[in-house]
Every structure is written in structure tokens, then in C-alpha cells.
Model the fold of this input.
Amino acid sequence: MSDRLTEDVSKLQSSFTALKAEVGKVLVGQDDMLHRLLLGLLAGGHVLLEGVPGLAKTLAIRTLADSLDGTFSRIQFTPDMLPGDVVGTQIYNPREGTYTVRKGPVFGNFILADEINRAPAKVQSALLEAMQEKQVTLGDQTFKLTEPFLVLATQNPIEQEGTYPLPEAQLDRFMLKIKVGYPTKDEEVKIIDRMAGAAAEPSANKVMTTDEILAARDVVRQVFVDDKVKRYAVDLVSATRDPKANNLAALAPLIDNGASVRASISLIKVAKAQALLSGRSYISPHDVKTIAHDVLRHRILVSYEAEAQGKTTDHVIAQILENVPVP
Done:
């Protein structure tokens, strides 16, 4: 590891600390949520936030976008939406007999997909190509999306009325799924003071450019990963697919489908970002453990037996982290 890399990591840690502080001028509490949004930004992966209404999910994403010098689009998902409302469409001109392309709101750097699970599957699927290939096809034309391209989606818990489950292929394209909880009582008092006080509501200033974000991602890719840590990440993912082979036979009846190879890739990518934000130019096994729940919870399908026992994917992941040997 070069001294240059160590120096770059130190500078970026300071830059992202300043970015976090700028967002904190508007957002009270929710430090874990904000930290994981920054991990997604650094690792170049899309982020899904789940929580009941009123927990500042949309505010956090909008404020983060306000702090970055890039284009921002908000898509409010509703049950009557069409795919063209997301990606755009071709409009026929009868006089000239030609089609013109009208690009949708997905053409931007930072896309807020608000309440994404309130739209049916065909609309959610319109995002698949954009999220994976960073491009959109309209008719016979394919348009590359501008980097950085990041989808930051919110959803309400699936038990709520008027929601649709996200297709598995859609879920797998989110690098992180963050569960958002309620603030503490002290934080809630601060929220009231800030949002319902006499002073004007605060706003965030732009403190980072898109070029700086892309440069930061280049540094993240250089973060060192030991082969033992790579093997540890693969062991964790493998345990979700074949618990018996990993001495976790008790979990086998609880899992219908395990995590994909994309999960192993995401574990390392996000762990690299976690190391950088911690001021290190190398990954430790603790980095992998820290972000494992957020990377894996939406990639595991639990069985009916698990649901009957009240066991969630987080329970499964916790058992795996407890039993898979750490290098």
C-alpha cells in the first residue's frame, strides 16, 4: 500500500465528514441511515430505505442531493403510473411521420424513487436496465446515463395497505437495503425545534462535485483486500445458500433462496467504502460484518416456516455472522 493511497484516503475521509456535517444541518439524528447513504454513494451502488412514513427518508435523500453538485430527479411512484413515466417515451409526429424522444426523470445523477413499492411490478421493472446497465432503451435507441448515476429509493413496509412487493430481480440491484427506525426522544425534540421553530428551516449548500465523487470511487477501488477477507465474504454468502455445508443445519429450513454472487461483490465494494470512511486503506473482517445486514437482508428469501416462527432475514444473517469463522 502506497503512501499516496493512505494520503488520498485521509483527505477523502475529511471531505465526507464535511459532507455529512452539511447534511446534518438539516437532518437530525438518523446517523446510521446517513452513513449508509454515503457508503452507497462511495461504492457506486443503489440504496433502498425502508421505514414507516415520517422518518425523514425522503428528506435525507433530498438533502444529500442538495449537498452534491449534480442533477436531481424525484419520481413519486403511484399505482396508476406507466413505465414511460419513469424512463421516457417516443412521441409520434404525424405531420413528418417521425418519432421524437422525450426523456423521463430517470435521466439524472441522483434519482429519488419515492415510495417505489406503491407502483406495480411493470413500472418498477422499468428501472432494471437503468440500474444495472446505466443505460435506457427507448424504441431502437439506447441512451447512456450520466455518471454518477445513483437510485435512492424509499419504501413503506410491505404490510402497509396499497403496496406491492418488489420483484426479486429489482431487489438484487440495490446494493444496500437500510431499515430506518424512529429517532430518540431528544432527537425528536431537536427536530421540532428545527422544523417548527421561529427560524426559517435550514438548507444544505453544495460541498462536493460529481467529479470529486467519481475520483473518490477510484480511490475506493484501490483499497486493499486480503485474500482471507475475500474468502470470509464468500463464506458468509455461501452460508445463505447451503447452511448445512457451513455447519448451520438449523438454518436450512428457514431459507428458501440464498444470496446471489452479486451479494459477494457488494460485500467487498461496500466494505471498501466502510474502510475509507474509517480512515483506512485496507479492509478488515469487521468492515464486512458491519455492513453485512444491509447488503444481505434483501437478497435472502425466508421460508414459510421462518415466517411462522417470526424469524426474519436479519435473524438468519445474525446467526451466520455468529457461526462463520472470522479470519
User: Anything to note?
Assistant: The chain has two domains: 3-197+207-215, 223-323. Residues 227 and 233 are 10 Å apart (CA to CA). The two ends are 20 Å apart (CA to CA).
